[in-house]
Amino acid sequence: MRARRLRTGLKGWGGVGAMAVACALAVLFALLLPVARADGGSDGGSDGADSGGHGVAHGGQARAAEECTDPEKQTLPPAGDNGPTIDEIRGRQGEKRKLIVGVDQNSYHWGYRDPNSGGDAELEGFDIDLVRRIAEDILGDRNAVQFKAIPTDQRIPAIQDGRVDMVVRTMTINCDRLTDVAFSAPYFRTGQQVLAPKSSDITGYDGTLAGKEICTAAGSTALSTLQQDRADGRLAEGVDLRTTVPNQLDCLVRLQLGEVDAVVTDGALAASQAAQDPTVELKGDAFTTEYYGVAMKKDADDLVRRVNQILVQWRADEAEGWQRSYERWLSRTMGGDPAKSEPPTPPQYLREN
Q: How much is the mean pLDDT over the chain?
């Protein structure tokens, strides 16, 4: 085992010292937020659902996953009608009349608390803009939201257990997850990429990863993709996948401390992490194409249709819509051309009922 030395000279918000402060703040705010938790976890790609969700999946749903192609199209056409799920949300009384949403609070420019903003450091970012847009449409108030910070591997259990109405947390739509939750139409296009120190000899998702230790978030698409590629012989020889963490930001800290050689995650998140720490960079191009969606309960058809209608309107709104949010939060880290990140439009829906 080769020795690893602590990388020094880290600068900016992403430096080890500053990151420690940020992580401490994250813990503090996590105590203030009603954090969603569930027993157990998973090292698979199903957000903890392997410990229960897959085991109890109906036969038809399991077959649907096996036959699934183009998972980003497996949703319902947009509609504005209310139904039992929306009626329940709107029927909440007093302070409880809020949309309950599972989010991240540590993903830079997606769902995070800026430690430099002072005061209460409200959640902000691209995903948070979408949450507020949904709340405004359903409840008439963009601030009528109860945010619940949840780790990556607890996104599906939080939905299944009814602790949240939906999850908006850079969540990739994939076939396995469709056995456990319903997804909206895609709202962002991304792909898995490698993040490593600038000084590293790693050049991308290729043979230069041989013998390297890679960090991924438990329950992430990154982990399940790497595991499948290893089983299929597509992953470089000797890659160590044992390092998994509850939240993706923890991988950046591990990388900064020299405990791992690289991180694999969605390119959109990797770009934000590179912006936090000038000593790391994206290595090579994305090696998958994936789409983020809003996750909801499988029987919440009315909510799925309503969210899809909101997404259509959000994409079309030139003043305060999708492109404005991209410019506000992501253009500095992902480039000035939002077309590379826009999902297909109009979405082609395969489900009709």
A: 83
Calculate ∠ Cα 97-103-108, nearest 5°: 135
Q: Which of 297, 326, 293, 327 shows the shortest CA–CA distance to 310?
A: 293
Residue 93 amino acid letter = Q
pLDDT score at 260: 98
Contacts of 31 (CB under 8 A, 6+ apart): none
User: What is the crossing angle of helices 267-276 and 248-256, to 10°?
Assistant: 50
Q: Which two tokens stand for residue 142?
A: 């963009």
DSSP letters, 84-140, are HHHHHHHT--GGG-SEEEEE-SEETTTEE--TTS-TT---BSHHHHHHHHHHHHHHS
Contact 263, 223 (CB under 8 A): no
Structure tokens at 316: 């079309």
Alpha carbons within 13 A on the beta-carbon side of 212: 28
pLDDT tens, position by position, 169-210:
999 999 999 999 999 999 999 999 999 999 999 999 999 999
175 by Cβ neighbours in 10 Å (0-12 / 13-18 / 19+) ranks as: middle
Residue 22 CA to its chain's centroid (Å) = 19
311: Cβ contacts below 8 Å, ≥ 6 apart: 78, 184, 185, 187, 294
Confidence category of residue 351, pLDDT binned at 50, 70, 90: low
Predicted local distance difference test score (pLDDT) of residue 350: 54
pLDDT(81) > 70: yes
Across residues 22-38, what is the average pLDDT? 38
| 165: Cα separation from own chain's centroid | 16
Q: Is 174 exposed, middle or buried (0-12, 13-18, 19+ CB in 10 A)?
A: buried
Measure the CA–CA gap between 214 and 240, rounded to whole angstroms.
6
Q: pTM here?
A: 0.80
